[in-house]
Amino acid sequence: MHSLLRATVFAALMVTLSGIHSFSQTTDPIVGTWVLNVAKSKYAPGPAPKSETRTYVVAGQDIKATSKGIGSDGNSTTAEWTVNYDGKDRPQVGNPDADTLSLKRIDPSTTEFTQKKGGRVVITGTRTISKDGKTMTITTKGTNAKGQTINDVEVFDKR
Q1: Radius of gyration (Cα) for the chain, nearest Å?
Q2: pTM for this predicted structure
Q3: What are the distances in angstroms from CA 131 to CA 64, 106, 114?
Q4: Are 150 and 123 in contact (CB under 8 A)?
Q5: What's the rounded Cα separation, in Å, for the pair 93 and 99?
Q6: How many domains does the chain have?
């Protein structure tokens, strides 16, 4: 009887631990839908987009992101990327400023990123998620596709 109890406790512990592992993979604070707060964001040289919504989902060991919005010119924008926090360049689609993106996690709420165009670093920055998980701030510096120096602070609210 004692060994049956021990086996039952061990099995329950393994189920609990595997559930914790699965839960921890999906608790990345970036996962979810984020809406650009244009009023709180700053774009230099500008102009700011009219809107943007980003959706981040877990895709195995990676994070898949989709961005849809309306640019400052009124045209629709769409971009997609799948990344990991391993610092390796991954392709981006729909971004006129860069064709690859790499991420490096600093802590659970802070990530550094590098964007390249044709293998050359063009943009660097940080992405920080607030302690309450409701605000994401992306700070970006570099050169856009038009050759302009950019210094942007984008603020997103979690939906």
Answers
A1: 20
A2: 0.83
A3: 22, 15, 24
A4: yes
A5: 7
A6: 1
113 vs 124: CA distance, rounded Å = 6
Return d(Cα 91, Cα 88) in angstroms, integer.
10
Per-residue model confidence as pLDDT tens for the chain (159 residues): 454 444 444 444 344 444 433 333 458 999 999 999 999 999 999 999 999 999 999 999 999 999 999 999 999 999 999 999 999 999 999 999 999 999 999 999 999 999 999 999 999 999 999 999 999 999 999 999 999 999 999 999 999
CATH number of the structural domain spanning residue 65:
2.40.128.20
Residue 22 lies in a domain: no
- Ranges assigned E (strand) in 84-132: 90-93, 100-107, 110-117, 120-129
Provide the residue type at 98 as one letter: A
Could you tell me if residue 3 is inside a domain? no
Rounded CA-CA distance 111/85 in Å is: 8
34 within a domain of the structure (yes/no): yes
Domain that includes residue 50, residue range: 30-158
Whether 125 is in a domain gets the answer yes
Contact between 28 and 41 under an 8 Å Cβ cutoff? The reply is no
